[in-house]
Amino acid sequence: MYKGIYIALSGAVLKQKYMDIFAQNVANASTPGYKKTRISFKDYMIPVDNKPPSVTDGRAMVETSQSITDFSNGTLLRTGNPLDLALNGEGFFALENNRYTRNGNFKINSEGYLTTQDDIKVLGSGGPITVQGRQIDVNESGEVFVDNVSVGALKIVDFQDKSKLGKLNDGVFATDAAGEEIKAAVSQGYLEASNVEAVKEIVQMITSLREFESYQKVIQAFDEASSKVTNEMGKG
Questions:
Q1: Is the pLDDT of residue 16 over 60?
Q2: How far apart are CA 59 and CA 2, in angstroms?
Q3: Distance (Å, whole) CA 233 – CA 172
Q4: Which three-class secondary structure state does DSSP give residue 97?
Q5: Domain span at residue 88?
Q6: In this prediction, what percent of the chain has a pLDDT beyond 70?
Q7: Cβ neighbours of residue 45 under 8 Å, at least 6 residues apart?
Q8: What average pLDDT does the structure give for the chain?
Q9: pLDDT tens-digit profile of 154-199?
Q10: Which of 97, 65, 78 is nearest to 32 (CA)?
Q11: Does 221 lie in the same domain as 116?
Q12: Shortest CA distance to 174 belongs to which of 185, 183, 162, 184?
């Protein structure tokens, strides 16, 4: 009976994690360049008591295997802001301190550096890019011009194993792995939208909530049955 409770509990815990992930995705649906998270799970058979693990009773526990980031591209949205940049295809904008992003919603800080909204400096091939001037133009190759004078090219990198990218806030990732500098098409005046489909995520979150509630009812039923058996044994 207790194994039944554990099975139901493992399902409830998994659905709770699903709801947390869906809620996080929905909360970032409007964050430029945000990549949605998914979780995978695995199940395993429960061994029969006092027998080798290879001998099972046919019931399965489930547990979270790993969180997976979906790096599929979002739609490009025109903003007309010269400091908004989007990448067509693969790659990430390189930022200082081994951070990377697809969120090209940049600004100029008080020191004249091109930065993220959280003041993380955007890197060019020769270091942080300064953009002190009136007119800022970025061509398709990522070269930045200030008042028609080139100040460097954006550093765009990609990774063969994107699973090493740790997700931070606002569509920023961090890793100590060395990325490969690549050529990418840059669109000025555009932002890449999040790849989250908000309506779909909300539907999945509601479904997970209902399944979580079902597991709770099963756990409660097992608990009541167990209490009843214990009471009957006490009377005997």
A1: yes
A2: 12
A3: 59
A4: coil
A5: 76-192
A6: 75
A7: 56, 57, 58, 59, 60
A8: 83
A9: 999 999 999 999 999 999 999 999 899 999 999 999 999 999 998 8
A10: 78
A11: no
A12: 162
Q: How far apart are CA 199 and CA 195, in angstroms?
A: 12
Whether residue 205 sits in one domain with residue 221: yes
The pair of three-digit structure tokens given for residue 115, joined into one six-digit string: 């930065």
Own/partner pairs, 58-63, CB within 8 angstroms, 24+ separation: 59/3, 59/4, 59/7, 60/7, 61/6, 61/7, 61/10, 62/10, 62/11, 62/14, 63/10, 63/13, 63/14
Query: Are residues 157 and 83 part of one domain?
Result: yes
Q: Which residue has the higher pLDDT, 233 or 105?
A: 105
pLDDT tens-digit readout, 69-80: 999 999 999 999
Look up residue 47 and give its two tokens: 């061994």
Hey, what's the torsion of the CAs at 193, 195, 196, 200, to 10 degrees? Answer: 120
Tell me, yes or no, whether 90 and 173 share the same domain.
yes
Which amino acid does the sequence have at 59? R
Of the two residues 218 and 117, the one the predictor is more confident about is 117
Residue found under tokens 């979906």: 70
pLDDT at 54: 44
Asked if 85 and 144 sit in the same domain, the reply is yes
More confident residue, 31 or 61: 31
CB 106 within 8 Å of CB 116: yes
What's the CA gap between 193 and 91, in Å, rounded? 15
Distance (Å, rounded) from C-alpha 12 to C-alpha 15? 5
The model's pTM is 0.73
